[in-house]
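Record type: monomer structure entry
Structure origin: computed from sequence
Chain ID: A
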Amino acid sequence: MIVVVDNRELVTSGYESLFAREGISTASFGAEEFRDWVETAPESDLSAVEAFLLGDFDDRAGCPRLIRSRSTAPMIALSEGRNLDGTLDLFAAGVDDVVAKPVHVKEILARVGAIRRRENAEATRTVVGEICVYQDGRDAEVAGKAMALPRRERRILEYLVSNRGRRVSKQQLFNAIYGIFDENVEENVIESHISKLRKKLKMRLGYDPVSSKRYLGYGIGVE
């Protein structure tokens, strides 16, 4: 999920639409609403955030410190034009990247991926048993072979593996896949995605690697 912050509804709604075309969920906030949300949001909501996209608003330079107190997700600031002093101030404030508008959402996603790769230069993949997922966009490998999965099943697998050794709730999975404010999708749809994913993994591995316990959630690498 990408969090977009801007006081102009035209800007936030525009990015919501553009990211949706790429299959990426978003949550949009005005500046004051965003500060309140970051301070009070439960960990399950913040863990679903893949990046923060900061538009043009007052006291934007104060946001990175607040965000970092709750999340390690990449922060990208949007610039209305090329302004060296403004760009340097934003980097000094702690943003990870500054992008001049107009910019295509595919470039924003590519920059988010690049930031994550730099931050995880020594951890470009995560392995749990016979399952290996990558942070660079490659298909997961299961039992030594690449496994192409529908986007949402793939995201669920990546989320479970990234949280290996502990259980995650259905709500956490829903937030990570659909976003925290998507009221048009029933939370129970996650059960359908997980069921399909588990069948495919079992066919490849010969066993089901996903453990589930009522009220506790799902996990990979969990006793």
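Annotation 1: The chain has a mean pLDDT of 88.
Annotation 2: The radius of gyration is 18 Å.
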